[in-house]
TrEMBL record:
Boundaries of every Metalloprotease TldD/E N-terminal domain copy: 26-90
Domain Metalloprotease TldD/E C-terminal: from-to ranges: 233-448
Domain of life: Bacteria
Pfam families reported in the protein's UniProt record: PmbA_TldD_1st (PF01523), PmbA_TldD_2nd (PF19290), PmbA_TldD_3rd (PF19289)
Protein name as it appears in the record: Modulator protein
């Protein structure tokens, strides 16, 4: 794997080439990923894959015009040719008055915070094979599971580096590990088939749940879905299981992004709106140790740190990169996301909705009658109006208890009204980059299958 110093040297070479080609300013991104994956089916290894990808993205500025090129060939001649091509493209492009590099006083300073993102382990093929097979076997051992839908394990490392022509240079490396399984259950008559899955991710292999635990979870989820019943349509409380509750945060973050606000394509308009009940707070923590999306600088070299996106129910401002901040007349706040290609977008880091006071079981008991959603299907969200309509499956809640599975239902509402009617349980776990506990939203429209 390319070492951090070599990555930064490659970026500096690209920036120097851009200046020689006539660019007024430039920034460059280097992204490298090495992943080994093993998939298994029916007790046999099905596939072993090793992927190695590396690319360099160079963005140049000529006055108020910009252009970006991406290359995989990083020899000196290829970098020089790419820089010349980028400058020619920028000169031929239209003006972009909002695009700029961060000023030196805005850039992140060197930090001694240890995010501990890389365990330094190279992939172990024998261990990956054992994990994939053990995960599948555990799923198949669950009563009610008829056959495997496949399983797998993965181990990899990635490097990300960013440099700008006005003095910023930063690099981070990280490892990642994953195990997953899918299972299939077929009703005794053969008239119904259900499928479900489980997966887990971690930066360090020692933090990953055991393959057997993940496999059993996939099997349990699949078996529980057999024999889905009918749900009478109506207005009722809907509980979102942690498997899907984090998607609601994704819709919120999209609406809070500076570019959406600047374009007028968000259902939000007030950066300090009281959107949630006062018991709800949502946190972004880029400094979480071993976090899946932890970082010390954003995609434009700005500093980042923990902050509340929603504080006691109230929004705490938009998520801004440099361009959207310029357009809105606000200060940037470290939410630029940058890959090798294209202009910077918007991204948070490790997001979570803080847990509530009630346990999941107590929240279900308090609900009385409703539905618990464990799977969402399709898109069905209008970012401009906030209208929400998703296909779903899950379980009936009757007299405060989970009863029969239901499938092919639709849950609908409007995100602003949904957020205002939200109650959080206490079962928050940090399994993904965006996490939420079980969430109940009262007064949703549910159409039965």
């Amino acid at each position: 794997m390319l070492d951090p110093k070599s990555a930064l040297d490659a970026l500096q070479s690209a920036l120097d080439s851009a200046k020689r080609a006539g660019a007024d300013a430039a920034d460059a991104v280097f992204a490298m990923d090495e992943t080994t994956s093993i998939s298994a089916l029916n007790g046999e290894v099905e596939d072993i894959t090793r992927s190695e990808d590396a690319e360099l993205g160079l963005r140049v500025f000529t006055g108020v015009r910009t252009a970006t090129v991406v290359i995989q060939d990083m020899t000196a001649d290829a970098v020089t040719a790419a820089a010349e091509r980028a400058v020619a493209m920028a000169r031929a492009s239209t003006d972009d008055p909002y695009a700029r590099l961060a000023r030196p006083d805005e850039l992140a300073a060197p930090s001694d915070i240890d995010l501990d993102l890389d365990d330094g382990h190279d992939p172990d093929l024998a261990a990956l094979e054992q994990a994939a097979l053990a995960c599948e076997a555990a799923a198949l051992a669950v009563d009610g599971v008829s056959k495997s839908g496949g399983s797998g394990s993965q181990s990899g490392r990635a490097l990300y580096a960013l440099a700008t022509s006005n003095g910023f240079a930063g690099v981070r490396t990280g490892s990642r590990h994953a195990v997953y399984a899918s299972a299939i259950a077929i009703a005794g008559s053969g008239s119904g088939m259900e499928r479900d899955y489980a997966q887990a991710y971690a930066r360090h292999s020692e933090d990953l749940e055991s393959a057997e635990t993940i496999g059993r979870r996939a099997g349990d989820r699949t078996a529980a879905r057999l024999g889905p019943g009918k749900l009478k349509s109506g207005t009722m409380p809907v509980l979102f299981d942690p498997r899907v509750s984090n998607t609601l945060l994704g819709h919120l973050l999209g609406a809070m992004s500076g570019p959406a606000i600047a374009r007028g394509t968000s259902f939000l308009s007030d950066p300090e709106e009281s959107l949630f009940p006062p018991q709800i707070s949502i946190v972004d923590d880029p400094h979480r140790r071993r976090g899946l999306r932890s970082r010390l600088f954003d995609g434009e070299g700005l500093p980042v740190g923990p902050r509340k996106l929603v504080a006691e129910g109230r929004l705490a401002g938009w998520l801004l990169n440099l361009a959207s901040a310029e357009q809105l007349g606000l200060a940037p706040n470290g939410y630029a996301s940058r890959g090798a290609s294209g202009s910077p977008g918007i991204s948070g880091s490790n997001i979570h909705l803080e847990p509530g006071a009630l346990s999941r079981d107590d929240l279900i008991r308090e609900t009385g009658n409703g539905v618990l959603v464990t799977e969402l299907i399709g898109q069905g969200v209008n970012g401009v109006t906030g209208d929400y309509s998703r296909g779903a499956s899950g379980f009936l809640i009757e007299n405060g208890e989970l009863t029969s599975p239901v499938s092919e239902i639709t849950v609908a509402g409007n995100l602003k009204r949904m957020f205002a009617a939200l109650t959080a349980a206490s079962d928050l776990e940090f399994r993904h980059s965006t996490n939420a506990p079980t969430l109940r939203i009262d007064g949703m429209t549910v159409a039965g299958g």
